[in-house]
Structure formats: structure tokens, C-alpha cells
Write a structure and sequence with these properties.
The chain is an alpha/beta fold and about 350 residues long. It folds into two domains: about 260 residues, Aldolase class I (TIM Barrel, Alpha-Beta Barrel), CATH 3.20.20; about 70 residues, Antifreeze-like/N-acetylneuraminic acid synthase C-terminal domain (Type Iii Antifreeze Protein Isoform Hplc 12, Alpha-Beta Complex). Helix 1 runs parallel beside helix 4. The chain contains ten helices and twelve strands. The strands form three sheets. The protein has an eight-stranded parallel β-barrel with strand order 1-4-5-6-7-8-9-10, surrounded by five helices. A two-stranded antiparallel ribbon has the order 2-3. The chain has a two-stranded antiparallel sheet with strand order 11-12. Strand 6, helix 5 and strand 7 form a beta-alpha-beta unit. The mean pLDDT is about 95. About 35% of the residues are buried.
Length: about 350
């Protein structure tokens, strides 16, 4: 049974607060149970944060444009972004808390200047956001660190992905590729989960996964069934909080249900074989059919095909064995519509 690597993405859902970020980390680390079969299931594996360098984010005019929306944390977009940005030291604080709870820690770095984080700690992986797959100087700077890299393909085709891989593989090949659609939320007709199969066929030397922006929890479970080894999903402590990503993220109940369903789906997959599982032995005896009498038969009578039909339970002769019954002599009286067992014939 393979274990899917599940990443809880904080993104900007911390709303500029280390304490909220830590609450989301705690949510990611919560144990998960399946109650019907009394299973303790593995929780999420990692939490992910995003670091921007605002001097390398947008043009001056875009940073200075008014940003008057219900989810704004500043009068201009630059002020809004600055409010949501945590310092290197604050990222380090969240990193230490995640590690104390047994989680991996992943950083999305949006500019070369963000590599300053690495002076304080080394993330388990670095994430390249979809929009930066064509930012080849950034990819090269990240690859030089030799830290494992996760790529999202949300805005990329084959050429963009190949160009990115050409840069990174000059330094290492510890790479994961996540199918992704950068539409928030992603419409059902646009998701195209079959891309996962395409990636596994054509880029099978790398780990293939799925970064999900749909509403709900079904798409990640389907992706696991299609072979995704990594799932990434935005999460929050409260979907009603202020913030552009909150409503499209999973809250505590959604996180629990998604992780539960993914872990159960891992168990569903089983082996590529057709066999009778031992768990259905009791049901098979109860529900399958055996050769039985159509009429009451007396000891000494010879059984013909017209004398038998099939009834439950299934602990007697199967129809494949009909020649072991027809033509045999009844040794003890058998009532109508009763199973013909081996000890009743000779």
C-alpha cells in the first residue's frame, strides 16, 4: 500500500499572523480516524508556506494601484501584500512548530531574494509556483541549493515544463511535478485529471502529483486512484475569514474528510489481481447457491437433472460439479428445496 504525500498549503491564509499560521499547522497535524472500521489513519505529511520579496513582485504602478476590495488589508495592492508577508524569522518560527509536530515543511519561494530564508533553516522541499515555471533564473537559483523541488504546472504546457526541467536537472533530479490548473476555483470541465496519466507516462522518472484548486474533496481522491503520489490543497482554520483564498480552502472538517478519504482510497487500491478475498468467505457461504432438490427424494432414488436446481446457502455442490450429483443414489431422505450434501448421496 502506497502512502500519498499530502501537503496542506497555508499560502496567505495566515492573514499576516504567525499565531494563525501555527493554528493551521496544528490542523494539518491532527490525527485522522475512520470510525466504521476503527482505523487510525496517517494525517497530512507536510505544511507549505509562501515567501515573496516585494521588491521583485510587481511593477511599481501595480504595487501602487488602489486595492479596495472586501479582502484587502491595505489601501494599495503593495500595502495589502506587505501586510500579508511574514519575515524570514517568522517563517522560521512556523517551521520549528511544524517540525515539533512531526510535519515536513515546504517553502514556495517567489524570488531569488527569498533564498535568504535558507540562512535560518532548510526546508524539506522548495516549491515553484505555477506562475514561476518560466522564471528560469529563479529556478536555477533554487536548483543550486540541491534541495528537492516541487513544480506546479498550472500555467504551463509541455514546452514550459521541459524548459524548467532542463534548468533544474543541471543540478539534481529530485523533482516532483504536480498537475495543476490555475483557475480559482477550477471549473469541472477544466480540471482534466487525465493529465496525471500523461505525466506518469512521459515524466515517470519524477514523482507525479496533483495540486488541487477545486471546491470539495472529490478531485484529490480521484487523483490518488489515477496514480498521484502527492496531493496539495489549500487549508484554513475558518473559511469565513477575510482573505481571497479562505472560501476556496478546506476548513477543519474538510481537512479531516479529505485525508480520511485519501488514506482509505490507498487501502482500496490493493493488488492488480482477481481473487476471492478471505473477508467475503462468510458472505459467500450465505449468499452463493448450491445444488438442491426440486422435490422430496427418498433413500434409494437416483437423482436426475430434472430433480435439482440452485438454492442458497453456498456450502454444497456448485453447478460446475453437477455431474458429481446427477446419477448418484440418495442414501437418506431429502426434503424438497434442500441442499444435497456429499454425505446424502453415493
Amino acid at each position: 500500500m502506497k502512502s500519498t504525500y499530502i501537503i496542506g498549503e497555508i499560502g496567505q491564509n495566515h492573514n499576516g499572523s504567525v499565531d494563525i499560521a501555527k493554528l493551521i499547522v496544528e490542523l494539518v497535524a491532527r490525527p485522522v480516524r475512520e470510525e466504521v472500521f476503527n482505523l487510525d489513519l496517517r494525517p497530512m505529511d507536510a505544511v507549505k508556506m509562501t515567501k515573496r520579496d516585494l521588491s521583485e513582485e510587481l511593477t511599481t504602478s501595480q504595487m501602487n494601484r488602489p486595492y479596495n476590495t472586501p479582502n484587502s488589508f491595505g489601501k494599495t495592492y503593495g500595502e495589502h501584500r506587505a501586510f500579508l508577508e511574514l519575515s524570514d524569522e517568522q517563517h522560521f518560527e512556523v517551521y520549528k512548530y511544524a517540525k515539533s509536530l512531526g510535519l515536513d515543511f515546504i517553502e514556495t519561494l517567489c524570488a531569488k531574494g527569498c533564498l535568504s530564508l535558507l540562512k535560518l533553516f532548510t526546508p524539506d522541499s522548495l516549491k515553484v509556483a505555477s506562475r514561476d515555471l518560466t522564471n528560469l533564473p529563479l529556478l536555477e537559483a533554487m536548483a543550486e541549493t540541491k534541495i528537492p523541488i516541487i513544480l506546479s504546472t498550472g500555467m504551463a504546457g509541455k514546452k514550459e515544463l521541459d524548459d524548467a526541467l532542463d534548468v533544474i536537472t543541471k543540478y539534481h533530479s529530485d523533482i516532483s511535478i504536480l498537475h495543476c490548473v490555475s483557475q480559482y476555483p477550477t471549473a469541472p470541465d477544466n480540471l482534466n485529471l487525465n493529465t496525471i496519466r500523461y505525466l506518469k507516462e512521459h515524466y515517470g522518472q519524477y514523482r507525479i502529483g496533483f495540486s488541487d484548486h477545486t471546491i470539495g474533496i472529490s478531485a484529490p481522491v480521484v487523483a490518488v486512484g489515477m496514480g498521484a503520489e502527492i496531493i496539495e490543497k489549500h487549508i484554513t482554520i475558518d473559511r469565513r475569514m477575510k482573505g481571497t483564498d479562505q472560501a476556496g480552502s478546506l476548513g477543519p472538517d474538510g481537512v479531516n474528510r479529505m485525508v480520511r478519504d485519501i488514506r482509505v482510497a490507498e487501502r482500496w487500491m490493493g493488488t492488480e489481481d482477481l481473487y476471492i478475498d478471505k473477508s467475503i468467505a462468510e458472505a459467500r457461504i450465505k449468499l452463493e447457491r448450491s445444488i438442491a432438490t426440486k422435490r422430496a427424494m427418498k433413500a434409494g432414488e437416483t437423482i436426475t437433472k430434472e430433480d435439482v436446481h440452485m438454492l442458497s446457502p453456498g456450502d454444497g455442490f456448485k453447478w460446475k460439479q453437477v455431474d458429481e450429483v446427477v446419477g448418484k443414489v440418495v442414501t437418506s431422505d431429502i426434503a424438497a428445496n434442500e441442499i444435497i450434501y456429499p454425505n446424502l448421496i453415493k
